[in-house]
């Protein structure tokens, strides 16, 4: 039996190392006004050069979860420059089945991410939906077997509610940055068993909430 580990592929390692190095300068480049902008498009435009990535440890966790769950479709809200999408797609590649559907508003980020995905040899597994996720994800054709919510925190709950008709029992939903106040309505929703989830906080970097659809 041949074992594959796409994260060890030099193309993927190089892409991740490059982007994490650039992301290390996010605090220097982040305009406070960008995060306070009123609309998602305004925020996307104001933060066009900011990576806002998951951590490397968080990426490893996502990879392991997708390997274990073996979803046919992975849905990501908030691609940015594509760091998390690389981890998700690497897991899909090593599973030998599945696809990644990711969403992003920033045109420059989409252009850069698509170039990165091609260079890493994973572009055939990733579909990028350009535009407002609350619109683009309406056309999802089938169940979502794994969901990552890492876009604007105040939109995570509306996106989840949009996806809920596509979530089968056992689907894992992961949200990043549990300490941010904008994620509180989302956390209140998934932590209430009456809403159909069993949820646990995983202590990696800024915290990931892992919720199982019941």
What do these coordinates show?
By secondary structure, this protein is an alpha/beta fold. The chain has one domain (6-213): Vaccinia Virus protein VP39 (Rossmann fold). The protein contains ten helices and seven strands. It has helices spanning 10-23, 26-29, 32-36, 40-46, 56-69, 83-95, 107-119, 133-136, 156-163, 184-190, and strands spanning 73-77, 99-104, 126-130, 146-149, 172-176, 197-202, 208-213. It has a seven-stranded mixed sheet with strand order 3-2-1-4-5-7-6, sandwiched between helices. Helix 7 (107-119) links the parallel strand 2 and strand 3. The chain is globular and about 45 Å long. The model has no long low-confidence stretch (mean pLDDT 92).
Keywords:
214 residues; Rossmann fold; seven-stranded mixed β-sheet; globular; 7 strands; alpha/beta
Briefly note the CATH topology name.
Rossmann fold
Helix proportion = 40-55%
What is the CATH class name? Answer: Alpha Beta
Pick out the low-confidence regions: none
Strand order of the largest sheet: 3-2-1-4-5-7-6
Question: What is the CATH superfamily?
Answer: Vaccinia Virus protein VP39
Give me the Rg, rounded: 16 Å
Q: First CA to last CA: what distance?
A: 34 Å
* Biggest sheet features: 7 strands, mixed
Mean pLDDT, rounded to whole units? Answer: 92
Give the total of beta strands.
Answer: 7
**Structural class designation:** alpha/beta
Question: Which shape, going by the Cα principal axes?
Answer: globular
Helix and strand run: HHHHHEHEHEHEHEHEE
Residues in β-strands, percent: 15-25%
Tally of individual domains:
1
Instruction: Name the CATH architecture.
Output: 3-Layer(aba) Sandwich
How many H/I helical runs?
A: 10
